[in-house]
Design brief:
It contains five helices and no strands. The chain is an all-alpha fold and 134 residues long. The chain is elongated.
């Protein structure tokens, strides 16, 4: 169903609120299932691979959500959800650099910033009924 929505969105078809909710929640559910399967790195050598897997998953989620065309009345709030995913992807890259540099202070700062920034995106997702995305 998500693929069909993506094709329709690519053609400029605006989704109904219900279709948006269903398709966005499905994309977020698939993302959550994907990252649940990730193994915790057992050594510093494994961290690069873990970051790559996480980045790929976030990038795919961002693409899936970006492909959906929300109703005009929901564009701004939905944009906040997509921006939250985008921000998470950007922060993941910064976290990787901080981890590689063993900069624990920067890691803590980035984690705190990410949690703060995610609150707005989570609130927007909840308001839209995107419970799987919050």
């Amino acid at each position: 169903m998500l693929a069909a929505g993506g094709i329709l969105a690519g053609c400029g078809a605006e989704l109904s609120e219900q279709e948006l909710r269903e398709q966005a929640n499905q994309a977020c559910r698939e993302y959550a299932e994907r990252v649940e399967g990730f193994e915790t790195p057992e050594s510093p050598d494994d961290e690069g691979s873990a970051f790559d897997e996480s980045q790929s998953a976030i990038d795919d989620l961002r693409s899936d959500l970006d492909d959906l065309q929300p109703p005009a009345a929901l564009e701004e709030r939905y944009g906040q959800v997509v921006q939250g995913v985008d921000n998470a992807g950007n922060r993941l890259g910064q976290l990787r650099v901080a981890a590689e540099d063993e900069d624990t202070e920067r890691l803590q700062q980035l984690v705190g910033e990410a949690a703060e920034a995610q609150q707005d995106a989570d609130q927007a997702a909840q308001e839209l009924g995107l419970d799987e995305c919050a």
